[in-house]
Nicotinate phosphoribosyltransferase
Amino acid sequence: MAGKAVAAAVMVNGSVAEKEVLAEIGGATNPMVTPLLTDLYQFTMAYAYWKAGKHQDRAVFDLYFRKNPFGGEYAVFAGLEECIRFVANFKLEEEEISFLRSIMPMCEDGFFDYLREVDCSNVEVYAVPEGSVVFPKVPLMRVEGPVSIVQLLETPFVNLVNYASLVTTNAARHRLVAGKSKTLLEFGLRRAQGPDGGMSASKYCYIGGFDATSNVAAGKLFGIPLRGTHSHAFVSSFMSPDEILDRALLSHDGSSTCKDFVRLVQSWLSKLQRTGLLRGVFGETNQSELAAFTSYALAFPNDFLALVDTYDVMKSGIPNFCAVALALNDLGYKARGIRLDSGDLAYLSFEARNIFHAIEKEFNVAGFGKMTVTASNDLNEETLDALNKQGHEVDAFGIGTNLVTCYAQPALGCVFKLVEINNQPRIKLSEDVTKVSIPCKKRIFRLYGREGYALVDIMTGENEPPPTVGERILCRHPFSESKRAYVVPQHVEELLKCYWLGNSSKRREELPSLEKIRARCMQQLEQMRPDHMRRLNPTPYKVSVSGKLYDFIHFLWLSEAPVGELQ
Amino acid sequence: MAGKAVAAAVMVNGSVAEKEVLAEIGGATNPMVTPLLTDLYQFTMAYAYWKAGKHQDRAVFDLYFRKNPFGGEYAVFAGLEECIRFVANFKLEEEEISFLRSIMPMCEDGFFDYLREVDCSNVEVYAVPEGSVVFPKVPLMRVEGPVSIVQLLETPFVNLVNYASLVTTNAARHRLVAGKSKTLLEFGLRRAQGPDGGMSASKYCYIGGFDATSNVAAGKLFGIPLRGTHSHAFVSSFMSPDEILDRALLSHDGSSTCKDFVRLVQSWLSKLQRTGLLRGVFGETNQSELAAFTSYALAFPNDFLALVDTYDVMKSGIPNFCAVALALNDLGYKARGIRLDSGDLAYLSFEARNIFHAIEKEFNVAGFGKMTVTASNDLNEETLDALNKQGHEVDAFGIGTNLVTCYAQPALGCVFKLVEINNQPRIKLSEDVTKVSIPCKKRIFRLYGREGYALVDIMTGENEPPPTVGERILCRHPFSESKRAYVVPQHVEELLKCYWLGNSSKRREELPSLEKIRARCMQQLEQMRPDHMRRLNPTPYKVSVSGKLYDFIHFLWLSEAPVGELQ
């Protein structure tokens, strides 16, 4: 499908350079994302526009959200690349047109001829760079083009941006509370909304600051680092070390072979039990677990990381793990560490750390005390915060359900509103003032203060002079008359950039790599004043309009009010 | 990909009949769902099993959930068809193996040769029929096969079942509260977890009892009825009726043409304003809206349904709608009705209904009073319930965000636990008793009472005699000694049926059509005692084990407890 669409776009334009641009953008398109991935009413409206001869009317739509998610005062914008890919490949296949004809049999043939020609060569897409910190009411994207085509884009754009931005924001919030030094692993595939929900989750959690995913397909498609060791089932699938047949292990430097690694492990276990280092631990450790750990170490001597809570962390998991790790150490390998998937993670991480340190000292094993402790089990922003407050020895967190389902708030309400048609500004009124749209084709600027932090976002009419460094500008709340302030910016950043300019690739921003988007997100989070970003009682960031735009909004508002009615 | 996998499976088996079965199952596979759509640890474990020579060990895993979602006492099982398709197509492509080799460079070549041969010809999948009402702890699926292969299936199976079952359950709950007579429309595409989240939502909401979707791609792929009319943007894209150039409309019977439909509408509007039927409405209605409605009616004279809340429902939307509907009526067309997307839906629906009835009487327009009132705007189970209690005149509900994101509980915690390996039963213990797994390869029976309602589900060991109609059987709580009861079933249904039997298609259940799955779901909801299904304080349905299985669980439990420790 991508291939065909590229060819079609090239036919229109004909240049080789253009072909390359489109081919590049058209890269790894999700085959689910066809022009039919939209609400039926976008097609019924397209027909009504076409019947009325209005389908070529030039419309401007803003895509924005109304309220920050997760009780916070910011969000992170994501999903742009997929929107641009969608636009670049936008072309109805013949069989798709046949399907539309079958469900809209009342429509005239000419309409389907029109649909056959439809593409995005007259569409323009302006957007905030992907990975930016963004705020309510400020357009994340401005989409211009023939009204019928731009409306066909509404549902897929909102679909592609909504969850992407929500889960990126969720990931960023987890990163902020975990701190920079911790490793964050996304383990959510099994709890996501189906296969593609899992793929999107892995991609956008990475952008939001996670370090790796367990999702192999996402690792392959997006180049995200992969992580994973073994599960409880692996542990209970073993009965005892007697099952292990091939017991030989070559030493790390290749100089010698341990013929019976199982026996070496067992001798270390006895030694550990004799030392008294494992306070309170007596009796036997679980033999299934010992066999599973030994087996895993034989397979991955350089990557031995064990899940230690299948039976009892302190009485079985830790002693078994340490015995295997010490046996590996004899052969020159360094074990990675443990994963805890239940229980009191703060307490267990401290206990494990203490034992690791004691062993380092007792047996003079350099680095044993610093082994990685990974924690999983229904973690979320709140539990990370609680762990921090309590103190813990966890180095890495594996987070699944709460991260990818955005359990704390599973939807971001992005909307797509008409703000201008045929150069006429349009406003959508509502009895609920937070639902009133901000009319006009706008420019958006972020004004920075002396300390380098962002102070305010300001929306202006398209033809107003832009804010200037060092010059005072009036920033007004879009709807509340009393809220206004003068700001003297030290730096001005225009937020909306052109990512799609119909057939022309001139002046079009490049789509950055995943790594660059992630880097932008990390940098943006740092450029915000910390009080906007904190978990508890964050300060709202100010979003404003110019004085001129304010006056115009309120003029339009009055003119649209029903006659004879106080609105 | 599907094609290749079928060919590979056929090579193993060779029969033409088999090829057809596989080709059929392999039908519309989601291209996202490849064997790499799994957690990395499934591959690292596969390697460890392979290294230990354990990879062919015959394992039995149960897939089940632990707690009913949405504060209810039931769930609906869905996602089975996609699991079976996945199994039928399970084959690693050469480039996928190359990728695995690149991320697991420490693994021996022989392992990748092994992966190259891996398929599901030795796997068996038993499952509760899709669309069944199901309960915690009872296996929804039992998967048997070589341990390394069955573990590779864990993540995709849980991914495919978790959200599918959750959103089907959510849809079923909405259907139960809305009642049979209402039309339920799924409008969630823009708020779902990406494109495939939207596709899954449409499919499974239909199974759970919704009547139609707005998602065109889902309509095409699954044959689900489609619904949709127009948005607020359509209304505000018009300035005034002067814009409408082609004003002619052929009458419904084709006998005459109204040359200026716009004028006919306007004359009806004046007539309405003079009658006083529109109590309290004076002054002008909104001209953008009037133009949009007129235009939409010109495009869809047989399907005129208008969104009436862009400006003011009672002062503009309803009068404009009625004028257009009456003009259509003059030409022999019947308008469909209105959609309300804001405000007090109960009140507005009553007001609209009153006006429709008054117009039917005043102008003698048969059926005008019965026009459809559709409501949307952030609806959920709770608001439907509140509307019912308050009384309303809504015929159809359009539900999006809360439905598809499962806002009230966005995750179902399906797990996949080892219950037997090489004929040895395995149990997963936990300090939390709700997390203890029920060991052994089991059979599951649903016992029905005299009134036709299901009484209890009972799990038995594989080789126990099954429950018999009219014979008393002891049903025990799996973990609580004191909870037990004798039941005399009037009807016994074995729940787990074979859906995949390796290479053989013998004794394998057919995969039913979407319509049949939906019908099963609707029928199952009726077969449950209403007190299990009610919203408020539902009665828990009983899930039990046989006396023999109870004894065995507790024997195993004791034998796994750490030595010298009271667990």
The CA atoms of residues 260 and 427 of chain A lie 78 Å apart. Chain A touches chain B through 123 residues (CB under 8 Å). The domain at 2-174+409-560 of chain A is CATH 3.20.140.10 (nicotinate phosphoribosyltransferase).
